[in-house]
Design goal:
The complex is a heterodimer of chains A (about 775) and B (about 140). Chain A is about 40% helix and about 25% strand. In chain A, a hairpin with a 2-residue loop joins strand 25 and strand 26. Chain A contains 26 helices and 30 strands. Chain A is an alpha+beta fold. In chain A, helix 14 packs parallel to helix 15. Chain A has six domains: about 160 residues, Four Helix Bundle (Hemerythrin (Met), subunit A) (Up-down Bundle); about 55 residues; about 55 residues; about 180 residues, Histidine kinase-like ATPase, C-terminal domain (Heat Shock Protein 90, 2-Layer Sandwich); about 150 residues, Beta Barrel (OB fold (Dihydrolipoamide Acetyltransferase, E2P)), CATH 2.40.50; about 150 residues, OB fold (Dihydrolipoamide Acetyltransferase, E2P) (Beta Barrel). Chain B has one domain: OB fold (Dihydrolipoamide Acetyltransferase, E2P) (Beta Barrel), CATH 2.40.50. Helices cover about 10% and strands about 50% of the residues of chain B. In chain B, a hairpin with a 4-residue loop joins strand 10 and strand 11. The termini of chain B are far apart. In chain B, about 35% of the residues are buried. Chains A and B meet through helix 11, helix 21, strand 17 and strand 18 of A and strand 4 and strand 5 of B.
């Protein structure tokens, strides 16, 4: 029974794949009714399902597939033309097959799924010389009776399935392995009822050599080798391998550290080699989890066809970049939001034919799905050439719904206003249809995409169309995260939720209380605060010398108070025991650099559990949309020259650019400092940090980039400021060197992207921990 | 005579055992990551070859005070239901072959949290071994409800 279960499982999996293909082919066939290739392919796929279901004794499935097959054979033979009605009937048949397969998957039986109506419809279709079919009365199809259920499917002759292959006889004759006369007599025998296969007849009558026949059989089906080169692998097995590779990386890091200390150059080389192999192995394993986005797109032609037909619209679907790969768990998560966007585009985006013609557009609307890599993300776009959205109407609606105040609108740019459509309860649809327009959906799309660490944005031009854009991380298994300390424990926060960090020194920045509720004035606005120590049930610490992480989740902005922010790193997300997940504070766990387990905090749950008042949302909507829009743009970078290298610093981390006379540089302990606006500003020479040779040591002034964080500033010394550039979709490559996050090609030059935080830590590991004490030290 | 193999271990000087085929491995581990707000019986998390394992403090499950997680603590890692779970114990004993005639149901005088975890008593030479229900023993929500 076990074995049979496996066979059924395989059958289900294969059939689902086949059905998706059939769906696509049927929709394509409707566009191109004359295509014999498409009909044959659909026929073969249905035939396979029918054959296997007969073998596994799923009789309803077999009967249904047989009915579909009969209709298809009439289409193939040209007895009946391909019309939208036949396509609809065939699609209904496919849905029936799908329902049966689902029932089999769940209950292991076909009970409870009624397919008689579909079968009757198929037969009606075959028998009725329907209005849209100029059927020839000469072909009344005598073998098909309108008594569907009673009919037992006839086991098909092998011929139709193999029609795509070259007939065996032909191959044999061509290679000279058999005489044409022998082949035709064998064929004659088959027609007269000999059930043996052609090759068998020839062999048994000694008309051909066994080797030649098997060779001919192989030549007949060249496809097999492709199937043999791929195997199905259990995802659990891959996850297990991922785990082990992650562990290998940790072990490697420990080993490399140890080896470096010994200073043995031979060992160091081996360790480096091990490091490279490990990285490649990790990459390879990651790749096995990747699947082309085509997997989820394949269902969309059918969705669009059904929907556009029911709405009486004409929509052409264009797919670009369907080979773009994504982690399979992400594909699953993206499927529903994407389907929703597509339905929405057909329903609301693309106009009725008459309106399109009136607007001077082609009557057929175009829906474009586009996927491509951009930086470390995959961008998926759903673009239509429909009516577009009216920014003013969105703004007006947002004000009506109380999502915006009227005086806010003039200060908002188009993108920010457009982003309002992702707010809960927002819908501009004039009428409610059963497809969309009930005000649910877009906010769900946003929530679902953000849950997997992605972002969603929209751009629209009135009269020209709308582009919905999803930015999706490449993999769920690895996320960029910040590690923080709270109490004596270390926690991990996904970086996607972090907007900024504020250091609270108790003087210039401080936590205030509004009737007991902690708040912080962030650029004049009150930010509700959540103390991580309180949220985790620890003893509550002081309000000084702590950090506020400004976080965003579920459209809320709040500050999380932690003791210390350590660094950013890429962490591999591990599943957490389901019981512990139920606590609702942790989204997962990870193995930290020291091999210990670190808990990954679930930011949205944290916000919810901390009873953040819902009114908080409204105030923050402007900020929300700005953050959303920001992800759509490239990041702005300050390009500097350090020695012969070009180093880019994210502009939003830069406070000021200054020039200081060299004479103003003073020494404080081992550090170089300058007095600046009544403060002591430590200097940090990037050329030292990066190990670059600085060429212009002799000038009278130094160029510095002032970087501030948490009320403390540091001046990064560079040779000169080159430019400000926007980092669009450029090739990024990670390099593992302290202080640098990676390299990118900016303005056709290889440029290193600086991780300022890490660079500062590399120069002064105590920079962050000493923040409060440092001023006193310098002053003394 | 039917016999079964038990992996034995001690908690608070009492000998316990679980059937050997429920045990994945036994190891000693140093560092545990506490899980704030988790049920008290969750001792912490640790890293087993890249897999994150929850360690259940058997002392808490038996109604005793928490084990101090300083220095190495012995773990009996049970296969669980697709999710390995570890039991924190004081000391690891031997694997013993036990005939069914040495078995008796738990004594009526045994009460409290221990009673719910124990399926029976085996009379060994000189001492008693309590056979644990592996599923009950790692059910951290049991003790709190």
């Amino acid at each position: 029974m076990e074995d049979l279960g496996e066979i059924v499982g395989e059958f289900l999996m294969e059939s689902h794949e086949n059905l998706d293909q059939i769906d696509r082919d049927l929709v394509a066939l409707e566009q191109d009714p004359g295509s014999r290739d498409l009909i044959s392919r659909i026929f073969r796929a249905i035939h396979t399902i029918k054959g296997t279901s007969g073998f596994l004794a799923f009789s309803r499935l077999e009967t249904l597939a047989h009915a579909g097959e009969s209709l298809l054979s009439r289409l193939r033979d040209g007895v009946q033309p391909v019309t939208p009605t036949t396509i609809t009937t065939l699609l209904a048949t496919i849905d029936g097959v799908r329902n049966l397969l689902e029932a089999i998957e769940q209950n292991n039986s076909e009970e409870g799924v009624d397919v008689d109506a579909i079968i009757a419809a198929v037969h009606a279709q075959m028998n009725a010389p329907s209005a849209d079919a100029p059927a020839e009365p000469a072909a009344p199809a005598p073998e098909e009776k309108p008594e569907p259920v009673a009919e037992t499917p006839v086991r098909p002759a092998p011929e139709p399935v193999e029609e795509q292959r070259r007939p065996l006889g032909e191959v044999l004759v061509e290679t000279g392995a058999a005489e044409p006369a022998d082949v035709s007599s064998a064929l004659q025998a088959q027609l007269e009822g000999d059930e043996r296969k052609l090759g068998t007849i020839l062999l048994e009558e000694g008309k051909a050599q066994p080797a030649a026949v098997s060779e001919a059989l192989q030549a007949q089906s060249p496809k097999r080798s492709v199937a043999d080169s791929a195997i199905r692998v259990d995802v659990d097995l891959l996850d297990g391998l991922m785990n082990l590779v992650g562990e290998l990386v940790l072990a490697r890091n420990q080993l490399v550290r140890g080896v470096m200390e010994t200073g043995d150059s031979g060992l160091v080389r081996s360790a480096q080699r091990l490091g490279m192999i490990t990285s490649e192995l990790q990459e390879g394993i990651m790749k096995t989890r990747m699947q082309p986005i085509e997997h989820i797109w394949s269902k969309l032609p059918r969705v669009i066809r059904d929907l556009s037909q029911s709405l009486g619209k004409k929509v052409e679907l264009v797919m670009e970049g369907k080979e773009t790969e994504l982690d399979r768990s992400l594909l699953e998560a993206v499927k529903d939001p994407l389907t929703h966007l597509v339905r929405n585009a057909v329903d609301h985006g693309i106009e009725e034919e008459s309106r399109r013609t009136a607007a001077g557009k082609s009557p057929e609307g175009t829906l474009t799905l586009r996927a491509y890599h951009e930086g470390g993300h995959v961008a998926v776009e759903v673009a239509d050439d429909g009516a577009g959205m009216d920014v003013n109407r969105i703004a007006q609606k947002a004000v009506e719904k109380g999502l915006l105040r009227a005086e806010q609108v003039p200060n908002m740019d188009k993108r920010e206003i457009m982003a309002m459509v992702f707010q809960p309860g927002f819908s501009t649809a004039a009428k409610v249809t059963n497809v969309s327009g009930r005000g649910v959906g877009m906010d769900v799309v946003k929530t679902n995409i953000e849950r997997i660490g992605g972002a969603v944005s929209v751009d629209s031009t009135l009269g020209e169309g709308t582009v919905w854009r999803l930015n999706i991380p490449l993999t769920l298994a690895i996320v960029q995260a910040l590690t923080v300390d709270c109490g004596d424990q270390r926690y991990v926060i996904p970086q996607v939720a972090v907007l900024e960090l504020v250091y609270i020194d108790g003087n210039s920045t401080k936590i205030e209380y509004a009737s007991g509720a902690p708040v912080y004035r962030l650029r004049g606005k009150l930010l509700p605060l959540v103390r991580l120590d309180r949220a985790l049930g620890f003893d509550v610490g002081g309000d000084q010398g702590v950090y506020i992480m400004v976080l965003q989740a579920d459209g809320r902005r709040f500050g999380l108070v932690v003791d210390r922010v350590l660094n950013t790193e890429e962490v591999v997300v591990k599943a957490l025991n389901s019981r512990l997940k139920d606590i609702g504070l942790y989204s997962g766990a990870t193995i930290l650099g020291d091999g210990k387990v670190g808990l990954i905090l679930d930011v949205s749950q944290l916000a919810r559990r901390s009873h953040l008042a819902a009114e908080g949302d409204r105030e923050n909507i402007t900020g929300t949309s700005r953050a959303g829009a920001g992800t759509g743009n490239g990041e702005r970078l300050l390009i500097t020259a350090v020695g012969e290298r070009r180093v880019a610093i994210p502009l939003d981390t830069v406070t000021r650019l200054e020039e200081f006379p060299r004479s103003r540089i003073e020494q404080a302990g081992s550090r170089e400092v300058v007095q600046y606006r009544g403060q002591i500003l430590p200097l940090m020479r990037l050329s030292h940090v990066l190990g670059a040779y600085s060429e212009v040591e002799e000038g009278d002034t130094v160029s510095v980039v002032v970087y501030s964080e948490g009320g403390r500033s540091v001046a990064l010394v560079v040779d000169r400021i080159v430019d400000i550039a926007e980092n669009e979709a450029t090739a990024r490559r990670d390099v593992e060197e302290d202080g640098l996050v990676g390299t990118a090609v900016i303005q056709q030059r290889v440029t290193e992207l600086l991780d300022v935080r890490r660079a500062i830590l590399a120069a002064d590991p105590n920079f962050y921990s000493e923040m409060s004490g440092n001023d006193m030290m310098v002053g003394a | 005579m039917a016999s079964r193999q038990f992996a034995t271990f001690e908690v608070a000087d009492q000998l316990f055992g679980v059937e050997v085929d429920t045990v994945q491995e036994v190891l000693s581990y140093n560092e545990y990551t506490p899980v704030p707000l988790a049920p008290p019986a969750v001792g912490g998390l640790f890293n087993l070859r890249g897999q994150v394992i929850a360690a259940v403090d058997l002392r808490v499950q038996l109604g005793l005070a928490r084990q101090a997680l300083q220095g190495p603590v012995m773990n009996v890692i049970l296969r669980g239901d697709g999710e390995p779970v570890s039991l924190l114990v004081d000391r690891i004993g031997e694997v013993v072959d036990l005939d069914d005639d040495m078995f008796e149901p738990p004594p009526d005088t045994l009460s409290g949290p221990t009673r719910e975890l124990v399926v029976g008593t085996f009379k060994l030479d000189g001492r008693l071994m309590l056979a644990l229900d592996a599923n009950q023993a790692v059910d951290t929500f049991r003790a709190t409800t």
